[in-house]
Amino acid sequence: MTAASYLKKLVVICALAAAMVLGSLGSANAFLDKTRFVAHLGVAYFCFHQWVWKPYKAGAFESGVPHRTSTIVKGGVALLFAVHEVGVAKKIADRSNDPLLRKLDGNLATLTSSFGTIGQKLKSGSFDPKDIEGLNTLTGLVGTQAAADGATIKDVPVPLPSK
Length: 163
Description:
Blueprint: H1 3-25, H2 33-57, H3 68-95, H4 99-123, H5 129-148
Helix pairs in contact: 2-3, 2-5, 3-4, 4-5
């Protein structure tokens, strides 16, 4: 990777992180609550699925696999970022008068806690398959509950500049 492409990626990542932090600082009003809620959960789901679930299903966390530790650490960092995104979605749900968001609000606390706990474990290099399976079940539960009430949560990939 050239220095210019690395710098481009770093600038984009920093700009996205700054936009998310600044966006979460503003007051949440009723304008597009469901859309903002689903978008933030979509980013969290993408982080989980892309850097934790897919590598886990591909066997990248198994002992003896090349780059296992770095894959586990990346998964931990991704989950810690997902904690932030779920926290923003929770703030939106807390401040909203929408009955669906109020209904999902309770499960978000559990999801935030699980993402955070398992994210810290993975970031430190420790891996337990039961943690990953449980997280997948929990994200599926929140997603199914939201979809049943008409708010489908889909992975929201964040495109990075190509080389």
